[in-house]
Amino acid sequence: LKALSLVGAADPARCVLLDDATRNLEPAHKLGFTTILVGSSDPSPVADISAGCRIIGALKELPRVMPELWS
């Protein structure tokens, strides 16, 4: 949360974290970030994050799952 305040983003719901490891996405998801698992070979179950995590195979798929970033 300190990093959010440093960049002036007080609302975690307006933040997106992309990573290939569920262990890195889990804390951000719990804080309210939109989380996206990218091209993971991570053996951790995605269920650890919850149904709210979006999953893509590669970054080129990002516009399909988050078109609002380009509007």
Tell me what the structure shows:
The chain has 71 residues and is of the alpha/beta class. It is 28% helix and 17% strand. It is built from three helices and three strands, in the order αβαββα. A three-stranded parallel β-sheet has the order 1-2-3, with helices on one face. The longest helix is centred in the middle third of the chain and has 10 residues, at 22-31. The protein is globular and about 30 Å long. The N and C termini lie far apart (26 Å).
H/I helix tally: 3
Weakly predicted, low-confidence segments: none
Structural class: alpha/beta
The helix fraction, in percent, is 25-40%
Beta-strand content bin:
15-25%
What is the alpha-carbon Rg in Å? Answer: 12 Å
Spatial order of the strands forming the largest sheet: 1-2-3
Mean pLDDT: 80
Separation of termini? 26 Å
What is the N-to-C order of secondary-structure elements (H for helix, E for strand)? HEHEEH
Shape: globular
Report the major sheet.
3 strands, parallel
The number of strands is 3
